[in-house]
Amino acid sequence: DLNGDGRVDADEDFYDTRDEIVEAIAAGRYPSPPARDLHFVSQGRPERKVVIEFTKWVLTEGQKYVPESGYINLTPDKLQQELRKLEGE
After folding, report:
1. What's the domain count of the chain?
2. Are residues 42 and 76 part of one domain?
3. 38-41: which pairs have CB atoms within 8 A and are 24 or more residues apart?
4. Do 17 and 56 lie in a common domain?
5. Contact 21, 14 (CB under 8 A)
């Protein structure tokens, strides 16, 4: 009961399959927790080439592994935003 009206409405009933839950999380209909962003944290922009290349891989090729790991892919806009940060933009 996401809206607090004492019942599970049709638009709140997305628990039948894992795919339905994942779709609801990706669409922002499922509250946090358990839906929350995960972050890499560094002190300033990474400077070591290996760290930059790994982070780029995570934001590009590595995204194909996200759903099978039970996570939600970042949106294309968010991916581009994070890649630009690595480029120093």
Report:
1. 2
2. yes
3. 38/71
4. no
5. yes
